[in-house]
Amino acid sequence: MIGAGQPPIMKLLRMPGIYRPQADTWLLLEAYRDQRDLHQAADVLDVGTGTGAVALAIADASENRCRVTALDIARSAVWTARANSLRSRSRLRVRRSDLLSAVAGQQFDVVLANPPYVPSPHAQVPRHGPARCWDAGTDGRLVLDRLCLGLPRVLRPGGAALVVHSALCGVDTTVRMLTAAGLRARVVARREEPFGPVLTERAPYLEAVGLVEPGCREEELVVIRADNA
After folding, report:
1. Fold of 23-227
2. pLDDT tens-digit profile of 38-54?
3. What is the pLDDT of residue 8?
4. What's the confidence (pLDDT) of residue 62?
5. Alpha carbon 52 to chain centroid distance?
6. What is the model's pLDDT at position 210?
7. Residues ≥6 apart with Cβ < 8 Å to 8
8. Which residues contact 16 (CB under 8 A, 6 or more apart)?
9. pLDDT band at residue 63, thresholds of 50, 70 and 90?
């Protein structure tokens, strides 16, 4: 099983511009660890895999050697995750995908997702560069909203998704969207974290648009579980 704290996945290869496993990664994995009913899943999907950290941890911790599919929009992330899969001798299926497009028509028992969610002064998601890993429009929801709408199509009946993001982009909004899409949604994990380099640099913008109080340099990370009951 995945242990508490930071899983031992920091030795993974990581190409420049690929998202580094950090606080939201650990929280997502710990939430999975705590949701014991998910551990018997046969088919697991990891959305926004980056280095493959979450997908590899799930594959290694599986009680029944589940099949794990990992998706990312960045070609460099796909090659990185494939390389890490080979190095760890875990058999991941890694595909390049704009969110869920590469698995259209397929369904999974468990979906884990760590999408871009950082509010940005720019209205559109970057097409290139490292900021594509975190920037998600002025309210941080450009990718999250698409994910919420798409999850019911990739979850089997009885399946569940775990989605991690910052409270800065609206926890209640995510729960409402998932509920409206026909899923049963609730928060299953929370953690306060100090701002990292990206949010620290962006703090004046976040203050100016009212997303944080002046001088605030902490955010709450949440994991929301959505069940296809």
Report:
1. Rossmann fold (3.40.50)
2. 998 999 999 999 999 99
3. 46
4. 63
5. 11
6. 94
7. none
8. 130
9. low
Cβ–Cβ under 8 Å, residues 81 and 146: no
Of all residues in the chain, the percent with pLDDT exceeding 70 is: 94
Averaged pLDDT, 91-103: 94
Tell me which long-range contacts 83-92 makes (C-beta under 8 A, separation of at least 24). 83/13, 84/12, 84/13, 84/51, 84/52, 84/53, 84/56, 85/52, 85/55, 85/56, 87/12, 87/13, 88/56, 88/60, 90/56, 90/59, 90/60, 91/59, 92/52, 92/55, 92/56, 92/59, 92/68
Domains of the chain by residue range: 23-227
Question: For the segment 106-139, what is each residue's pLDDT rounded down to a tens digit?
Answer: 999 999 999 999 999 998 888 888 888 899 999 9
- Measured in whole angstroms, how far is the alpha carbon of residue 208 from the centre of its chain? 27
Which residues on adjacent β-strands are paired with residue 45?
69, 111
Backbone φ and ψ of 195, nearest 5°: -55, 135
Give the pLDDT of residue 34: 96
Residues 6-27 have a mean pLDDT of 78
